Amino acid sequence: MKRIAFFLLSLTALSSCRRPAPGYLLVRQDTTQQRAQYVFMSPGGDTVRRLDTAKYYVCFSDTVRAFAIVGIKGRKSWWAIDRDEKPLFQVYNTSDGEPTPDELRYGMIRIVDDKGRIGFANDRGKVVISPRFEAASNFYRDKAIIGGSCKKVLWCCEGENSDKHYMIDCKQAGFIDRSGRIRKMGAYSFEEMEKLSGWKPDQD
């Protein structure tokens, strides 16, 4: 069975370019206090909630609809929290060794469990596909590409002081629909599965 390199693509959602929907909150950093804080604010400028810097060390979101993506001290990776700071799910990091949490694309965002398996949540903050895949692209319309029989391999670079970059090497590729049902799976390359499924890396 031919081994294939399964590249997971990190894509920027267009949501940041669109006018936010009603009911959203803005995220601002308040530096007027002794310690800088992230603040959830109404569009009119009223403070709704302050994120305690004793608990959070970064907030990646600039607006909050159903959730914001944050770094929580003492917790692995990135987390989605709702407006009341309830942790909803762990967000997939798209680039090994760099702080690059996944973003919504076609209303879906990649999530992970403690074993590194990938699933999906929707734009309302609900887990709709429980984490169970070894590798998965983000969604394009109604499908995402998945990988099976995978392992993490060094892509670049060797040497004691060099940065380590990895890719996911999978023996199989397939694709799922928005319910998580596997529609096709086999000894395909990522590129072959792109053509078979109609998945595309760019937004319309």
TrEMBL record:
It holds the Pfam family WG_beta_rep. This is WG repeat-containing protein.
